Amino acid sequence: MPYAEFLGRLVLAALLGGAVGLEREIHGRPAGIRTYLILSLGTALLMVLSEYILVAYHGKYPGLVTSGDPGRIAGQAITGVGFLGAGVIIRYKDSIRGLTTAACVWLVCSVGLAVGAGFYLMGVAVTLLTLCALIGLKAWERSLRKDWFEDLQVVSEDLPGQTARITGMIAQHGFEVITFGLKRDAEKKELNATFQLRTRAVKPQREVLQDLLELEGVKAVDIS
Predict the structure, then answer these.
(1) pLDDT tens digit string along 120-155?
(2) In sequence order, which residues have a C-beta less than 8 Å from that of residue 33 and are 6 or more positions away?
(3) Dihedral, CA atoms, 40, 45, 46, 50, nearest 10 degrees?
(4) Tell me, what DSSP letter sits at residue 202?
(5) 3-state secondary structure of 147
(6) Whole-structure pTM value
């Protein structure tokens, strides 16, 4: 293969990987331009080596019988990139962050392999589709009415019927109580109620905080 084509594949792979990394960088994700660019560039190099190593050895040593799987190096690249994807997945409270970034890490690896093998159109097409999904679908997802889960904690004076008033106020704001916990402090005459709530709306209804604070006896409200 001419060196010009060899270098062209590497440059194109780096540009495509960097394009996906730029979108992730703008949104403050842990893996950014450099990570994606290097990953795509490295896998493109592995693909080129995997594709042409047998040809190179056969040309250098004509009498040597060579056999093997030219896709073995590329296959190991796909497997090995898993540790990078796992490194960007973060557990935050009851939610998981970084799954999209991890998927992008894996996808950029495949883009690098495709470009390294000479499938330029496929590499460019997949990169464009990925950017459309990351940018376009994100705005559409924000407009969806979907389930939101909230953890609510209410500290209040231990008044008769207070728990019923609190749950009634929660229901008025469209929240459904999934789980409920209650602690009473006899000395302070306080109750500490915890709720896991679910609502289906464009955004969680934070107005419930103000209304709960206005209830008689309520001392503190926290929602997360």
Answers:
(1) 888 898 888 888 888 877 777 667 666 777 888 899
(2) 18, 21, 22, 25
(3) 140
(4) S
(5) strand
(6) 0.59
